[in-house]
Amino acid sequence: MSGTDKANNKIEDLGGKAKEAVGKLTGDKGTENEGKGDQAKSDLKGAGEKVKDAFKK
User: Is the pTM of this model over 0.85?
Assistant: First the structure.
């Protein structure tokens, strides 16, 4: 996994956490769920990158 991909995944994860927190504070379930979705997407991208790295070796 390149450093850029790692950084982008981390930024997406942190953004998702922020959206989730804002959604909880404001009572907006849509924003909260969107934040959770962003975090899940980031996790999946990271897992995919790790699989690609494993096959490169």
Answer: no
